[in-house]
Amino acid sequence: MTISNMKRIKNILLLIIAASITACGGSSAPQQERASINQQTGIVETYKPAKADLINFSKSDVARFAISSIMGQSSKNIKVRSENELYYVSYMRKSDSKKFDYKIKIDGNTLVWANVDGRWRDGEYDERISFEETGNRLKIYQTFSDGSIEIKEYKIGD
What keywords appear on the UniProt entry (predicted)? Predict the structure, then answer.
């Protein structure tokens, strides 16, 4: 068996596993999410269609909760300001009073983040961040390059 055939088999197995997890409810991801394999990288990627405008949450809320989820920080300590379609997010880490600053671009129901003076996290091995508003709850989805998904849920007032 050639290396090329082994890669194809691996990709097919990864796609079957990702589809099985979604179909069987093994993931909390919404049903409209679908998985596919990037043919160049062999990485399982998930996609969610763009969603209508936010109703109960603002884009500033989305930016705050996204950084809370990504960085494992309390959303209550995170400050957000917007400027020219970018959201600037900052917080002070309690353990050492160090300040962290990030920027976020929101497009539909996905977002990309970066350190204020760093690169955008949009490379092939960076996680994909998306969000979904359902009533008074907002879910932040982190989809990693290995196909795994981490979901954090926030409610109004968090």
Answer: Signal
pLDDT tens digits for range 107-124: 999 999 999 999 999 999
Residue position matching structure tokens 């596993």:
17
Count of domains for the chain: 1
* Token pair for 149: 């998904």
Tell me the pLDDT tens digit for each residue of 45-55. 655 544 547 88
In the numeric block, the tokens 């990864």 are attached to: 14
Nearest alpha-carbon partner for 82 in 65, 61, 53, 51? 61
Alpha helices in the chain (DSSP H): 3-23, 59-71
pLDDT tens for each residue of 128-151: 999 999 989 999 999 999 999 999
Q: Are 55 and 62 in contact (CB under 8 A)?
A: no
- CB-based contacts of 60, cutoff 8 Å, min separation 6: 80, 82, 87
